[in-house]
Design goal:
Helix content is 55%, strand content 7%. It has four helices and two strands. 2% of the residues are buried. The chain has one domain.
Length: 89
Amino acid sequence: MRYLMAALAIATCPCHLPLLLVLLGGTAFGAALSEHTAVLFVALTLLFVLSARAAPRMFSQLDPAGGEARPARTLKIGGATHGPDGRAR
């Protein structure tokens, strides 16, 4: 799932919209996209922002041993709060 989010963020980056329109230029789908460029730009931007925010969060929650996502844990020692890496926050 985390690789899907990263690929989605790369594919839906709004800077790729001109390239997408050029590649699909001779097709009916490309014609429909070129007529609704503003809507497509807003939709791609929203999808890009959501997937670009989700991908790093998914990658940062990897368990080094099994590769499964794990919740971040904090530990209170003395008066300082320590994160999963052992550093004080």
